[in-house]
Amino acid sequence: MRKLLGTAAILGALAFAPSANAATTLYNFTLDGMTGSLPAAPYGTVSVNDNGGTSHFTFDVNLGTDFYFQDSKAFQAFDYSLGGNVTSTVIATSGFSSAGLGSYSAPNIVVPSDTTKFNYAILCQSLCAGGNPNGKITQLVFDVFGTNLNLSPIDNTKNYGGTPIYFAADVSYQGGSSAQTGNIGAVLTSGVPEPSTWALFFLGFGAIGLMMRSRRQTVCA
């Protein structure tokens, strides 16, 4: 009994202990800066995998149903704030390019008079929706390499009481009678455990269940 209890405790602790492996954090697009009414949020997600450290982040941006990246000749397709030293950005999705270090805003999402801006952006200047009816791109995947990388939000969101926002996207929504355009903003949702963490978690519960079953049998006997 004591051995089982000890095993369950150890496995449970391992399941909830900080992992040295890669961790994925999920963000939801919930802030609405579009030109018209939208369905209920979220309008898509952003997942960021740290690949087990601070030197390589993988971004996977997925827009919701009827949302597409907008041609971004005037504005950025995707904005984000990143601390540390960025050495390179590798974009897996065709049609996109990195705007590099700068000062980027997201109209209708951030307060125009506020000097806080996103410092990195991704552009889509030809293949995306809004002038190109066939360019309905819903996913953007890219990798950032560097040292001491870390994501940080900005909190000058317009009409949302300074809600910390990690990302903004310039999109077209084509779910109604006419297309709507504008920016949407993403907020922190959660960290997603790695498969190894889930395995330890379930092993811990399994050991606890085994212990309880053994205890019931002892009592009945």
What are the defining features of this structure?
about 220 residues; alpha+beta; 2 helices; 11 strands; about 20% helix; globular; disordered N terminus
In words, what does this structure look like?
The chain is α+β, with helices and mostly antiparallel strands and 221 residues long. Helix content is 19%, strand content 37%. Strands 1, 2, 3, 4, 5, 6, 7, 8, 9, 10 and 11 form an 11-stranded antiparallel β-sheet that branches. Strand 10 and strand 11 form a beta hairpin. Helix 1 (2-16) packs antiparallel against helix 2. The longest helix is centred in the last third of the chain and has 26 residues, at 195-220. The two termini are 15 Å apart.
How many separate helices? Answer: 2
Mean pLDDT: 81
Percent helix range? 10-25%
Our measurement of the CA-to-CA distance between the termini, rounded to an integer number of angstroms, reads 15 Å
Strand content: 35-45%
Given the C-alpha coordinates, what overall shape results? Answer: globular
Structural class designation: alpha+beta
| Low-pLDDT segments, ≥5 res | 3-19, 193-212
Major sheet size, sense and barrel closure: 11 strands, antiparallel
Rounded to an integer in angstroms, the radius of gyration calculated over CA atoms is 22 Å
Total beta strands:
11
